[in-house]
Amino acid sequence: MSRLSYKIFGALLLTVLLSVGLTSFAANQLTASQFRQYIIRGNTEFITSVESALGTYYAQYQGWDNVNGVLIQLLGSNGGRLVLSDASGLIVADTQNKWIGYQTDEYSLSNGTLISISGTDAGYLYWIGSQGSGSGSGYGKGMQSGQNNSGNAAAGIISESQQQLLDEMNRSIWLSGGLAGLAALGLGLLLASQIIRPLKALSRSARRIAGGELSQRVKVDSRDELGELAESFNHMAQSLETNEQSRQRLLADIAHELRTPLTVIEGTVDGILDGVFEADAQHLTTIKEESATLTRLIKDLRDISLAESGKLKLEMTQLDIADIIRRQAKQASILAKDKSIALLSDIPANLSTVTGDATRLNQITANLLSNALRHTPAGGQISLSLKNMLYRDKPGIMVSVTDNGEGIPPADLPHIFDRFYRVNTSRARSEGGSGLGLAIVKEMAEAHGGYVWAESLLGKGSTFNYWLPASHT
Ligand code: ADP
């Protein structure tokens, strides 16, 4: 048994013992006192009726002659023993026929119930309880002082069978208390085991997860707080597993990305050293370009890791996004001209200002423009547009880069913002793409409190939009 179950068991046992013990004790006391009162009431009535019968007898026969038979009849099935003395204390009747003719002492006289007829003392009646019967230890035995004269002989007389009944009742109370206690203890232990079982399962799974078994889950079979705990645990395990998988994928992707340019550099250098290639401008340029790819890749990796961990430092200022777009359009126009692509821009007046990091916003725009230029054939068109737009009820500015290039297949569209995702892997790589450009754009836009999304029709072109919240004025 675990320590928690010891504690629950201890607490339950204590509670059950205390509550059952106290309740049974109180019930016992109450039953005993109620029972005694009931008996006393019955006894008082009995003695009063005996007194009145004896009074009638005395009045009728002017004495106690032959009263013994009547007394025996009067006792009937009542417990104990009736003794009658005359006014002087001489015993004239005894339901056990033992003391007739004996003289009572003063003490016993005072314990008897006086029978008086029309103001004349006729005698004393003694009712000796069952405990005293036959013992001869005194008439007063078992008698308690009554509230009135006639109550004297009646008070506290409990016959053997009545005492047995009382004992029986008390035993029943203790027994039912004990049984109720056992039932409560059993139920409590059942409940405790229902709490402890899922907790144990949780701790087992937690240990396995710590040991690297990230696919571990616990069964959720209740809707209470324990069920919620199990569900949260499973969520945590799920996100640990997802994170671990994406970490492994990232490492594999990085290794893969590094290998291609390094292989080219190594192969070219080996060729030059072996005398297969000339150390001429062409081969040195290959080495330089692949080194540049590596440098860009490392820079992109750094950017994305900073952005993903929320550690990207943004130098936020209030700025006019139109300026950035104009500058980027100007730079891209040289390349566009080289590729015979028309670059148009639509920048309206009175645009809201945004708060952002100018370098990063330049980077986002440059990335989108460079992608558009790469995926638009000669004679195509790229347009840059800006407009004030509400996004999810918040005012801001939307920047759109639209091209009429090759477009993106619908199956690829939901993934293009993922790290290292490329639609046409070999072509993208040969064009120097790391597959990180759009992932960086997404992270940067989100770091500004913005969003980025793409729309595309295969063979018709694509539009990449990013939205930034307007500065608070
Ligand atoms: P890369 O640096 O390899 O271009 P990106 O993350 O910038 O990687 O882009 C991911 C993929 O999205 C690219 O492989 C490319 O196929 C596709 N893509 C991006 N921009 C465009 C566009 N304007 N038109 C068509 N496809 C695009």
TrEMBL record:
<dbReference type="InterPro" id="IPR050428">
    <property type="entry name" value="TCS_sensor_his_kinase"/>
</dbReference>
<dbReference type="Pfam" id="PF00672">
    <property type="entry name" value="HAMP"/>
</dbReference>
<keyword id="KW-1133">Transmembrane helix</keyword>
<keyword id="KW-0418">Kinase</keyword>
<feature type="domain" description="HAMP">
    <location>
        <begin position="193"/>
        <end position="245"/>
    </location>
</feature>
<dbReference type="InterPro" id="IPR036890">
    <property type="entry name" value="HATPase_C_sf"/>
</dbReference>
<dbReference type="InterPro" id="IPR003660">
    <property type="entry name" value="HAMP_dom"/>
</dbReference>
<feature type="transmembrane region" description="Helical">
    <location>
        <begin position="173"/>
        <end position="196"/>
    </location>
</feature>
<dbReference type="GO" id="GO:0000155">
    <property type="term" value="F:phosphorelay sensor kinase activity"/>
</dbReference>
<keyword id="KW-0902">Two-component regulatory system</keyword>
<dbReference type="InterPro" id="IPR005467">
    <property type="entry name" value="His_kinase_dom"/>
</dbReference>
<keyword id="KW-0597">Phosphoprotein</keyword>
<keyword id="KW-0808">Transferase</keyword>
<keyword id="KW-0472">Membrane</keyword>
<feature type="signal peptide">
    <location>
        <begin position="1"/>
        <end position="26"/>
    </location>
</feature>
<feature type="domain" description="Histidine kinase">
    <location>
        <begin position="253"/>
        <end position="472"/>
    </location>
</feature>
<dbReference type="Pfam" id="PF02518">
    <property type="entry name" value="HATPase_c"/>
</dbReference>
<dbReference type="GO" id="GO:0005886">
    <property type="term" value="C:plasma membrane"/>
</dbReference>
<dbReference type="InterPro" id="IPR004358">
    <property type="entry name" value="Sig_transdc_His_kin-like_C"/>
</dbReference>
<dbReference type="InterPro" id="IPR003661">
    <property type="entry name" value="HisK_dim/P_dom"/>
</dbReference>
<dbReference type="InterPro" id="IPR036097">
    <property type="entry name" value="HisK_dim/P_sf"/>
</dbReference>
<dbReference type="InterPro" id="IPR003594">
    <property type="entry name" value="HATPase_dom"/>
</dbReference>
<dbReference type="Pfam" id="PF00512">
    <property type="entry name" value="HisKA"/>
</dbReference>
<keyword id="KW-0812">Transmembrane</keyword>
<protein>
    <recommendedName>
        <fullName>histidine kinase</fullName>
        <ecNumber>2.7.13.3</ecNumber>
    </recommendedName>
</protein>
<keyword id="KW-0732">Signal</keyword>
